[in-house]
Amino acid sequence: MQQILIASHCLLNTAAKLKRFDQEEIESEEALRRRVLKEAIDRGVQIVQLPCPEFLLYGSRRWGHTYDQFNNAFFKDKCREVLTPVLLQIREYLDNPQEFELLGVLGIDGSPSCGVKYTCRAMWGGEFSGRDVSPVLAQCKLEEGSGVMMEVLKEMLEENGIDLPIEGLFAPEAERIMALLDGKAK
Ligand code: SF4
Question: What is the dihedral of CA 66, 170, 158, 103, to 10 degrees?
Fold first, then answer.
């Protein structure tokens, strides 16, 4: 029996992330990312990598965005398109329960796309020039709720009658994340 985790793209490939500057936040997320990966490898857990919608749409030099910017029909449609092959993989694994156990989905909390329990919210938009953007940037808050791609993934799983535990990588709640590997998040 092989155990499988479905994970956000940047759990395996941080090169897809946008350039970040908060060193403390980077280090705490990186420590948990390595802990999860090491544990998964040591236990022989296989990892299916979700696509990174932001990299696919905006490349490596993108600005940071918020949930509210991505919460539109075009972004959601792209998410659905890139998630379709993953959904087929999930269905194939679930159709063969004697061979495979799906442990769940691991997203990245705080992300406007891959957040699970937390995402970042602000009504951003418009030109940078011609205004003081500081008050606009200050609107951005970590709030409870999923990112846009995770919402689309949840919809797609529900449409297919699939119920999987879904957690988000979040350093302050490391033990909750590790429980996913134990199959205890079910
Ligand atoms: S969109 Fe998701 S996979 Fe891509 S960098 Fe952000 S959290 Fe990682």
Answer: 150
Tell me how far apart the alpha carbons of residues 60 and 87 are, in angstroms, rounded to a whole number: 26
Which of ligand 1's atoms lies nearest the C-alpha of 10?
Answer: 8
pLDDT tens profile 56-91: 999 999 999 999 999 999 999 999 999 999 999 999
Which tokens sit at 76?
Answer: 């959601």
Q: Is 11 in the pocket of ligand 1 (CB under 6 A)?
A: no
Q: Starting from the edge strand earliest in sequence, which strands make up the sheet with 46-49, in order? A: 46-49, 2-7, 100-108, 166-169
Using a 6 Å cutoff on CB, does residue 16 contact ligand 1? yes
Report the distance separating Cα 103 and Cα 83, nearest Å. 18
Going from the C-alpha of 79 to that of each of 20, 108, 129, 133, the distances in angstroms are 23, 16, 30, 29
